[in-house]
Specification:
globular, 16 helices, single chain, 75% helix, 427 residues, disordered N terminus
């Protein structure tokens, strides 16, 4: 991203010169670079939603194995965490846009590989998960640094709200189109078509990234163990924040892939999965818009508490029966309340990264620390999944697992709540 090489964020705001090229504006408005980053992410999201929703289903149809999908996902999580840590040095000391574009290109390579392997993808599930993890690691490492540089505390909730809206729009259109094509063309033809369309959209995302400008490097060296040092320091706010991030990861570790798979198993119809995504994403679009507009520092503590409680309780209808209707109730409820949780959670983490000039200089290392928390949480959630499903695969066991990991973010609220008050100081 081309931005001024001058100016470092202090307290989440820029000191020095070059404010006009940060992508931020007075009054919480978003500048041109922020809008362009949202556009690139929107294209990346569309390409991922077109095919990513159906990857677990595709592997399930080829293998009929919950465990295989679990090991695929574990390969993805662990590799993305390692690549995130390694890519931090590249992003900090060299050119972050190369990392962003490499992530997009590798995402395209992943779907191209699945396209070539066809039904044999089940044999290479773990290497495929690792390839996907590499793509995600390179992309999100660069994306998060760029996001930090072009936003400030007064427009971060707005950016995250719009990002949520774009994600919801992707979820409305892309999976529905994919589900329609898969069911209409039947067999491998539908999957081949959506994987090919994803490749094209990933290409457009790469092209769009060339208009993002790079802020350049600050001459600082990458500190490999800075995250561990933060956690060792008594009284460091990252100790509480890291706990909150881990709880977010525990939920994501299971929900990111299991929901779509459960819907397919319950309905045996990719079109139903596409319809589910359409309805729930439409609700999420409205909810992200409303929360992004209304959420303020004065109300985010109670808003986030409501969100964390409700995304756990909304699993309860599935205990009555797991069918399309109860899954739809669960999906709509989650879409309604997830913005109350995820918007303040994301914003406050990045506010902490910009809390001082020193921490802002170490933004790459602290973003890696955030990702480490997510990965640890996801692996914990996935380990629970692998343990439970190795013993029993009954609907009751799966729903109980979903409920248990779904309520974990409540603990995260207790970790983060001191940072949610208006005019809060992290130290």
């Amino acid at each position: 991203m081309k931005q001024s090489h001058h100016g470092v964020k202090t307290g989440g705001r820029l000191s020095g010169v070059g404010r006009s090229v940060t992508g931020s504006r007075q009054g919480g408005a978003l500048g041109s670079q922020a809008i362009l980053l949202l556009a690139v992410q929107g294209l990346f999201g569309i390409a991922s939603a077109l095919s990513g929703t159906f990857i677990p289903v595709y592997l399930w149809k080829a293998s009929q194995s919950f465990m295989l999908i679990g090991w695929y996902t574990l390969g993805q999580y662990v590799t993305s965490g390692i690549v995130f840590w390694l890519a931090g040095k590249w992003v900090k000391e060299h050119h972050k846009m190369y990392s962003l574009r490499l992530g997009i290109v590798l995402s395209g390579a992943f779907y191209f590989t699945v396209l070539l392997l066809g039904q044999q993808a089940k044999v290479y599930s773990v290497p495929l998960g690792m390839l996907s993890g590499m793509a995600l690691g390179f992309y999100w490492m660069a994306y998060n640094v760029v996001y930090f540089e072009i936003t400030e505390p007064d427009n971060r909730d707005r950016f995250n709200g719009i990002a949520g809206i774009l994600g919801a729009l992707s979820g409305i259109i892309a999976p529905w189109v994919s589900g329609y094509l898969i069911t209409s063309l039947q067999g491998e033809s539908g999957y081949k078509l959506i994987f090919t369309i994803s490749l094209v959209v990933f290409g457009l995302s790469v092209v769009g990234s060339f208009w993002l400008t790079d802020r350049g490097v600050q001459g600082e060296k990458y500190k490999w163990t800075l995250g561990i040092d933060q956690l060792k320091e008594k009284g460091n706010p990252w100790r509480r924040m890291f706990g909150a991030i881990v709880t977010q990861g525990v939920r994501e570790g299971v929900f990111m892939f299991l929901i779509g798979l459960v819907i397919y198993i319950a309905t045996k119809n990719e079109g139903k999965l596409g319809n589910f995504s359409l309805v729930t994403s439409l609700v999420a679009l409205i909810s992200f818009w409303f929360v992004g507009k209304r959420l303020k520092a004065s109300n985010r503590k109670i808003a986030m508490l409501i969100g964390t409680i409700m995304i756990g309780l909304i699993v309860l209808p599935l205990f009555m029966k797991v069918n399309y209707s109860t899954l739809l109730i669960f999906g709509i409820g989650t879409s309604l309340f997830i913005p109350l949780y995820i918007i303040p959670m994301t914003s406050r983490v990045f506010d902490l990264i910009g809390d001082s000039e020193e921490s802002a200089k170490n933004r790459e290392e602290l973003i890696v620390l955030r990702e480490a928390g997510l990965i640890i949480g996801r692996v914990i959630g996935l380990a629970a999944y692998l343990i439970v499903l190795s013993q029993t695969q009954t609907p009751a066991a799966i729903v109980t697992l979903m409920f248990c990991v779904g309520i974990v973010p409540i603990a995260g609220w207790f970790f983060i709540r001191p940072f949610l008050s208006a005019n809060n100081k992290f130290r």
